């Protein structure tokens, strides 16, 4: 099985070498999704257990209703979260991590922790390298 990169050449070494070329587009899509800032935060917040939409919106500062809805839909489509609708009045819907999502949670928590730990250092680099208008 020949492996290729975006330019059509064979990938001989590195983390992409073991990935069949026909899987690369889909893998990039998955990485885009799980690497999205909102997806990371939603996965992190859901670690405490199932949450309703409004609770998620409160716990993920800055997310709009539109982005939360889109993020939840995409994470559900990827099998990372579940959506359970209860036949009650008023209707109740809860979102929770699936086993696949729980497997990703540790990685997500590490990334968020790293960003928080290095916040000041990264901000200082931004300030030093900012281009004056």
TrEMBL record:
<protein>
    <submittedName>
        <fullName>Putative HTH-type transcriptional regulator YtcD</fullName>
    </submittedName>
</protein>
<keyword id="KW-0238">DNA-binding</keyword>
<keyword id="KW-0805">Transcription regulation</keyword>
<feature type="domain" description="HTH hxlR-type">
    <location>
        <begin position="16"/>
        <end position="123"/>
    </location>
</feature>
<dbReference type="InterPro" id="IPR036390">
    <property type="entry name" value="WH_DNA-bd_sf"/>
</dbReference>
<dbReference type="InterPro" id="IPR002577">
    <property type="entry name" value="HTH_HxlR"/>
</dbReference>
<dbReference type="InterPro" id="IPR036388">
    <property type="entry name" value="WH-like_DNA-bd_sf"/>
</dbReference>
<keyword id="KW-0804">Transcription</keyword>
<dbReference type="Pfam" id="PF01638">
    <property type="entry name" value="HxlR"/>
</dbReference>
<dbReference type="GO" id="GO:0003677">
    <property type="term" value="F:DNA binding"/>
</dbReference>
